[in-house]
Design goal:
single chain; 392 residues; alpha/beta; Rossmann fold; 2 domains; six-stranded parallel sheet; 13 helices
Length: 392
Amino acid sequence: MRSILNEKNLKSKKILLRLDLNVPLKNGRISDTTRIDKILPTLNFLIQQKAKIIILSHVGRPKGKIVKELSLKPIVEDLKKKLNTNVRLIAENIYEIKNKYFFEKFDEEILILENIRFYAEEENNDHKFAKHLASLGDIYVNDAFSCSHRAHASIHQISNYLPCFSGLQLDLEVTALNKITNQITEPITCIIGGSKISTKIDIIKNLIPKFDNIVVVGGMANNFIEYFGNNIGKSIKEKNCNQLVKEIISLSKKKECKIVYPEDVLVSKDLNGSSNNRELNQILSNEMILDIGPKTINKIIDIIDNSKTILWNGPAGYFENPNFANGSIKIAKKISENNKSNKIFSVVGGGDTVSLINSLNIANSFNFVSTAGGAFLEYLEGKKLPGITALN
């Protein structure tokens, strides 16, 4: 995989730059600019190199149809302000743009083609569509790690028609994930949450041979609590998962990886209620588990203190209600504290987890914060991502 950083002569080259600018839009306004902010270093680097930039990106899932509400126009306006340069949205049909010299019609350094998913050919990984896109540039750069698990035309098929490079953000993402899966500094701990074991089982199986501790929190921890003979009331749980829990426990014993699940919990009768602390054998049938309890928090903090590397994906509880945010907040602040004193290398991923640390204004206290969802998880599963394979 060649990084665009190592390419010497980019002056006046037309760079087809695939980004993930899939930011949340509400009434034409961006509510979270994290994904835009993360790719600014790549854009600034290319501007400094006096390259001509043509951005390919998407918002939402228009399914091959033009949806006005999913236009990239708000993103263009945000980039103009942050880069202090002119950025033009090219709204005309991509097929009407006949060659790479269309850039000569414009004064702007940066052009953005309208939502690439307005074309069904994008998600179909259509080779003719990819070839036409490639005809618009001299070099292709993928800086959209979070889309790289998709075999789409602007991510996968396009690599057959142009010299290909990785962008700065993609380099950082792959380096961080390699560091926690291949270049490991032990002891290494994974704190993993979410509601479904079935979506994380392959990740857990892939990490168990490499990690010292897997700490299971969130909704999926309820399956472990119930598996070991406890009543979980009306808590969220995934059905028919005893076999999956059994597989995890069995593999962890063989590989000497410790599986940790809550020892005590916070419960309520509904999501908006106040919290009550419960031992596992005290949970009532009309209560639901919504956070980890103080004993469990102390245990996890102790594990963090005795770890050199931390991967965190998934909050510990229903943090949207402040009464059940304490577990997640304590974990976040402890990792942040140890990171500041250079005791650990930390990687955080997952939309909810990133939202939490952003709300606490401590995102800069982690070695790497990933905005990638599916790509992040599939990489941890050990899968080959089409977008990364294409660059190789």
